[in-house]
From TrEMBL:
InterPro entries: ArsR-like_HTH, HTH_ArsR_DNA-bd_dom, HTH_MetalResp_TranReg, WH-like_DNA-bd_sf, WH_DNA-bd_sf. Keywords: DNA-binding, Transcription, Transcription regulation. It comes from the Bacteria. This is Helix-turn-helix transcriptional regulator. Residues 8-104 form the HTH arsR-type domain.
């Protein structure tokens, strides 16, 4: 079984407007807080504290974050694992993630 990554922008192509737009939703901010631990997370809604949402809704939010360059998604067979692109985002927009994470309740 070969792991692969779903399409995402290169680090130098991540745009602040797209990042901020993606994080302008409370569900995606919740996901950001989960991903901020630096680990790799399953896409199962229950695994990220969103068991009250339909799987397709959670999938949509994860796709928006990936396409904005906030996360990376690794495919392993039928499973998907998401990780925050912390190093790339910190290099591109120093202090942004820290400020966003501090703003969470």
């Amino acid at each position: 079984m070969v792991d692969e990554r779903l399409p995402q922008p290169d680090a130098e192509d991540i745009e602040l407007v797209k990042v901020m737009h993606a994080l302008g939703d409370p569900v995606r901010m919740r996901l950001l807080s989960v991903y901020a631990d630096g680990g790799e997370h399953s896409c199962a809604p229950e695994a990220v504290g969103l068991g009250h949402l339909h799987k397709s809704t959670v999938s949509h939010h994860m796709r928006v974050m990936r396409e904005a360059g906030i996360t990376t998604t690794r495919v392993a067979g039928r499973n998907r694992y998401v990780r925050l692109r912390r190093d790339e985002l910190d290099a591109r927009f120093p202090g942004l993630l820290d400020a966003l994470l501090k703003s969470l309740p």
